[in-house]
Specification:
Elements (H helix, E strand, L loop, with lengths): L1 H16 L5 E3 L15 E4 L3 E2 L7 E5 L6 E8 L3 H16 L4 E4 L10 E12 L5 E11 L6 E9 L6 H24 L5
Parallel strand pairs: 1-5, 2-6, 2-7, 3-7
Antiparallel strand pairs: 4-5, 7-8, 8-9
Amino acid sequence: MKRAAVALAMLLMPVACSSPNPNLYTIAPVQAATQTGAPKVIALRQIGLARYLERTQIVRSSENYRLDVLENDWWGEPLGAMLSRVLIEELSQRLPQSTVYGETGAVSVSPDVTIELNVSRLDENTSGVLVLQAQAAIAPKARGAPVTRGFRFEVAPSDASVGAEVAAISNALGQLADGLAAMLVAPRAR
């Protein structure tokens, strides 16, 4: 009888200790108007992320000296890789006469320009508005001085759900792609 009770307890222990499967999210590309006049071959370097964003869980907010991290709502892939993938797709759509590659991909190219990007903030403020803050540099192949610019976008989610926050991140990333495309089309970016 004692053995049966121990065996039953051993069988039930993994069930009692397991947590529910996490909800996985991904950022979706946002379409926009196309532009012409950008360099032919563009390489996006690996995106630099603020260290607090380098986690599986989605960060809801970094306000008031505290990280609000969603325990069971995770990114479906590492955030830096996902941002790169989506930005490459968005820039390719916005600049159809250009070819956009990722630095960390399997294809190596000799680009006309390289995009360097640091994302220093990607979470909600105390008002519940999503904030994307980044710095970009467009470096020409000819080793001239890079063109730099800071970006800050604020997008209000449609509601307080995680899905609405992720949709707001998608929209903010689309605005960043618009800004990068404009930098690439500008005469100084060539």
